[in-house]
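Agenda item 2: fe (iii) ion complex prediction
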Amino acid sequence: MTYVTEENLTDLAVERWGNIPDPRLRQIMMSAVKHLHGFVREVEPTQQEWFAAIDWLTRIGHMSTGKRQEFILASDVLGISMLVDSINNRAPGKATPSTVEGPFHIVDSPEISNGGNMAEGAPGIPCFVTGKITDLDGKPIAGAMLDMWQTDGEGLYEAQIEGAEGYMRGIYHSNPDGTYSVRTVAPIGYTIPMDGPIGELMGKTKISHMRPAHIHFHIAAPGYKSVTTHLFQKGSDFIDTDVVFGVKEALITDFVKKPAGKAPNGDMVDTPFYEVKYDFVLAKAAAAQKAA
Ligand code: BEZ
Ligand code: FE
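Presented output:
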C-alpha cells in the first residue's frame, strides 16, 4: 500500500480516477484531476482562498435558475464557451464561422416574410440586412431558415423587457435564388449581467464587461450543417475586447449609413438608415462532419 505524500498525491488521484469502465468518462476525469492538481500546485492557495473559491462556486449555483445561468456566464467570460463552440463547429473552407449562442435566444419566433420588419415599434436606427445563403461552391440555398434575435437600439433583448413578446426576433426564409432581406433596427453594445458572482469577480479586474453591437443568427437548411453565429458591426465599441471572446474576423461587417430615402426592401424611410450586406455559406452536413 502506498500512503499519501504531497509529492505522490496527484499520481494516486489520477490512478484512482482511471478506475472507470467508460473510456470517454475515464479520459475526461483523469485529465480533469491532473489539470486541477496542476492548478493547485502552481497557485498553492491558502485554506482561506480555497474556501473563498468554493463559496464563489456555491453562489454561482444558487444564482442559476431556468432563466438565469450564472455557470454559463462563467464559462463565457473565461473563454471556455467559445473554445468548446470552436472545437465542435470547425467550419470547412469558406463556411460561415460559428460563435456563442448566448442566453437570449427564444424559440418559436414569429415567421416574417422577406423584407418584413422584426423591430416593429422598437427604438433605434432603421437597419436593412440583405444577402444570400449559398453552399461552399456558391450555389444558392433556397428555403434556408434564418432565426434572428438582437437588442433594440437601447441595448435590450426581449427577455429584459417586462411583458414583451415577439420583440426584436423573427424567423425568415431564403428566396428560391438564396437571397434574404430583413428590416430591423441597429443593435448597440451591452453589458453582461453584473449583479452576480461573475460581476463581482469582473469588478476586481480591469476587464471590460461589454459586448460589441451584434445581430444573432441561427441558419439551417436540410442537408447542411446549421450554424449559430452573429454579425458584428465594424468599428463598434468593444469590438476588440468582447467579454465573451465571440468576435471572429469573418463576422465583422460594415454597417453603411445611408441618407433618408428608399431602403433595400422598397420601404421609404424618412431618417438615415444602415445597410448591411452579408452572404452566409453553409457546408453540406457530410462534408462538415469530415472536417470536424
Ligand atoms: C449574447 O450575445 O447574447 C451573450 C452571450 C454570452 C453572454 C451574454 C450575452
Ligand atoms: Fe447578444
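Discussion summary: Residues 1-44 form one domain.
Owner for follow-up: CH.
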